[in-house]
# Entry
Amino acid sequence: MVRETGLYLIGTWAAVYALLLTTYFVTGWLFYSNDPARTDKIQVGRALPPEKVRRDIVQSVRSLASIALMFAIGHTLYTKFDIGLVAWPTSVWSVVGSFLLSMLAYDTWFYWMHRLLHTKPFYRRIHRWHHLSLPSVAWSNNSDTFVDNLLVHKLYDHISGIIGHSGVEHGGGITYPPSPFNSVTHHDQHHRYFNCNYSPHFTIWDRLMGTLHKTHDEEVKANLRRRSTSEASAQR
# Structure
């Protein structure tokens, strides 16, 4: 039983880690840009130094290993020992409902935990590492400490998080204010201004608690317009 469980844990970890690494490098390659001259870059004229780009990639590879291990442990406990919440009977509605509920629940958890990590007792020891990359690039998403991963990461924000650190507004019309959905600009402002824009997926908590940056809506609109103009110019 112990050997079987151990092999199952290792196999699950290896499979999830391989999936996360593949997603990280493919999505990062698709959305990576560090060109300070890009006209649609949110922080025009700024680039992340090459040594910090390498630092973020190396740290992300390490962080993804720990994220995969946390998932593997949880999955093994649920599968082998029935430890965890009982899943709803599988159907289209249960899958959609579970996903939406988890998005809202996680957005709430992330907002308040993220704000806590920005307080003096925790910031320097846990969260400061992530903020050393300014401007952020697509490779920066998973450049975190182990405790940071333990508190505020999940598997299904992997792609959205990478895009959210890309430094170029890819959000599209669905993020046009007062949309409740976050844009790339939302998290880019968090890195620039620090004490604002804490939520990962929605602007709801930031609007309710007054932590949405005062220029957020105007800047999102402007960046979406610049992105649209840049795409139109590229097609000519």
